[in-house]
Task: inverse folding
């Protein structure tokens, strides 16, 4: 149904990207658990890498999906899922931050804390979702998901008890993503007429994002790309 469609597309970038990041970072976190300063830097780079890729993908998805659905007749039936897609995308965006954090907790042996977080998220879902459905209909599932995702504040607090890290490493990817999103929001209605113009806006949005991130975070970007290349060559 609508929820399945929205959830599938919103979480696709998260699954594709986070699986690879976790594969690279988990062994590193485990090796560095007794070197707190190095572990802190590694965690920051992991969060930066995740948000660097996932934030713009989700923003592009939310901004372009309505046009894609309207232009292609066979997808027009999914138009009611647009709101759900937005809230699931919010959840996925915040999960791109919380996942490296819980990954770090597991790597340093704090599995019990991760278990408690899982229990909390499950209970929160069971409690909040039915009320949200009563108020917002099927969109309540996605809205509840978006609300629960703000519990990332708790995750950040818990991880900071063991690893001192700077959560504001997400600042540059977030800023570049917002610039790209604003650009797409303003230009899409003027440019998009068919599938080819959607593709053009995808490319143009990517150019705007990478140009913005290069301007704001050239040093961090080069450092992270170097780390990724080194790990891929191993």
Result:
């Amino acid at each position: 149904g609508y929820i399945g469609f929205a959830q599938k597309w919103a979480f696709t970038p998260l699954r594709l990207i986070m699986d690879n990041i976790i594969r690279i970072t988990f062994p590193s976190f485990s090796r560095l658990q007794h070197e707190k300063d190095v572990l802190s830097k590694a965690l920051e780079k992991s969060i930066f890498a995740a948000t660097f890729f996932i934030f713009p993908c989700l923003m592009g998805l939310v901004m372009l999906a309505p046009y894609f659905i309207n232009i292609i007749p066979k997808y027009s039936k999914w138009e009611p899922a647009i709101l759900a897609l937005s809230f699931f995308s919010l959840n996925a965006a915040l999960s791109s931050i919380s996942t490296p954090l819980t990954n770090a907790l597991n790597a340093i042996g704090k599995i019990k804390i991760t278990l408690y977080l899982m229990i909390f998220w499950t209970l929160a879902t069971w409690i909040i979702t039915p009320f949200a459905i009563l108020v917002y209909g099927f969109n309540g599932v996605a809205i509840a998901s978006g609300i629960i995702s703000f519990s990332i504040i708790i995750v950040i607090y818990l991880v900071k008890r063991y690893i001192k890290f700077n959560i504001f490493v997400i600042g540059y990817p977030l800023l570049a993503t917002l610039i790209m999103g604003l650009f797409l929001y303003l230009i899409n209605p003027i440019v998009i007429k068919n599938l080819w113009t959607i593709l053009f806006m995808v490319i143009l949005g990517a150019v705007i994002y990478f140009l913005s991130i290069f301007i704001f975070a050239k040093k961090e970007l080069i450092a992270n790309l170097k780390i990724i290349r080194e790990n891929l060559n191993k």
